[in-house]
From TrEMBL:
Membrane-spanning intervals of the chain: 6-22, 29-51, 63-81, 111-136, 148-169, 175-194
Originating species: Marinomonas aquimarina
Record keywords, A-Z: Cell membrane, Membrane, Transmembrane, Transmembrane helix
Record protein name field: Glycine transporter domain-containing protein
Keyword Transcription regulation: no
InterPro entries: Gly_transporter
Domain of life of the native organism: Bacteria
Occurrences of domain Glycine transporter (ranges): 5-77, 91-164
Length: 206
């Protein structure tokens, strides 16, 4: 039940980022709602297709689809009164990244897949929606920047696997993993948390 609720919150968070991102391109309400839906449902859709699930999760349970639609419509009208939309975008994106990664990791584990597959699909689910959103709104994907983005998702997914393997009885494992991802992303945004220079690939000066 907890993971179901977290999944719904993640859908809403990413839908909001899709609307804010689309708003920069002066799209109409239908295009914006569509982008919000793609951003919020895209990662999980890719996960279910790759794992060859019997049906995509939002087709099986249309509550996810309705949350994506209603959140996008609400955000379309609600963000107009928000002065610092960029900050809302980053916080919602960080929250959505954390929730999607953890929920996907737990879901894949529960289906009997190996830890490495769970971590991989957790990261893919977490970042894929944002990549699709950024490409469709003509902006550089956050995951391709030098600040921490995919790394927090990886560390959170790995923590989720370790907790489930050693403390499977603990009902708040998902909360701990979500908190780790969210905090690392906030530090990356506000404190300039980057990789050390020796881990970055820099082109040579010609």
């Amino acid at each position: 039940m907890l993971l179901y609720i977290l999944g719904m919150i993640g859908i809403a968070a990413f839908a909001i980022t899709g609307v804010i991102s689309a708003g920069r391109r002066n799209m109409d309400i239908f295009s914006i709602v569509l982008l919000g839906m793609v951003a919020s449902l895209g990662g999980g859709t890719i996960r279910d297709v790759v794992l060859r699930m019997d049906s995509v999760y939002w087709v099986e349970d249309t509550s996810y689809l309705w949350v994506a639609i209603l959140s996008s419509v609400f955000a379309f009208f609600g963000v107009r009164v928000i002065e610092n939309r960029q900050q809302v975008f980053h916080y919602a994106d960080s929250f959505g990244l954390a929730l999607f990664t953890v929920v996907a990791t737990e879901r894949v584990l529960s289906l009997g897949f190996s830890p490495i597959i769970a971590i991989t699909m957790g990261v893919i689910t977490g970042v894929a929606g944002g990549i699709i959103r950024d490409l469709l709104s003509d902006r550089a994907p956050l995951v391709l920047g030098k600040e921490f983005y995919a790394t927090p998702a990886f560390l959170g997914a790995m923590l989720m696997v370790l907790l489930e393997q050693n403390l499977a009885w603990h009902e708040y494992n998902s909360i701990y993993a979500t908190f780790l991802i969210f905090i690392l992303r906030i530090l990356a945004i506000h404190k300039g948390l980057y990789y050390p220079s020796w881990l970055l690939f820099k082109k040579r000066d010609s």
